[in-house]
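Hallway conversation turned thread

IA: we were arguing at lunch whether anyone had actually written out Outer membrane protein assembly factor BamE end to end. Turns out nobody had. So, for the record, here is the sequence (118 residues) and right after it the structure tokens. Reply here if something looks off.
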Amino acid sequence: MKFKNTLLVCITTLMLFSCSDWIFRIDIPQGNFLDKKDVEKLRIEMTKEQVEFVLGKPVVADSFDHDTWYYLYQMKRGMKKRGEDFRKELIIKFVDGKVSEVVGDFELSEEFSTPLDQ
């Protein structure tokens, strides 16, 4: 009788482990999703309002430096077969209310150094 109970527990445990891939886990996105096309619209000397129109409000605004905006995006995958977790960031620095520098995980367009006024 004891052998049958142990065998039943072992078989049930194996069946549960084999079904672990059937459990659906959702992806958890956090932050500002930035499209490459939108980032390519950025130009040097754009105003804060223009940047906000193109990219939206930043997820993080530096409390001590109001001239630095942080756009962060993180994707935590629920299931490994859908891909790896990743994080992207874009940091925009302003001088006198206009874009002076953009750094991060995105490539800027060739026209970035040309202001919109020209």
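OS: looked through it. The beta strands are 28-31, 60-61, 68-76, 86-95, 98-104.
IA: good, adding that to the notes. The CA atoms of residues 99 and 117 lie 13 Å apart.
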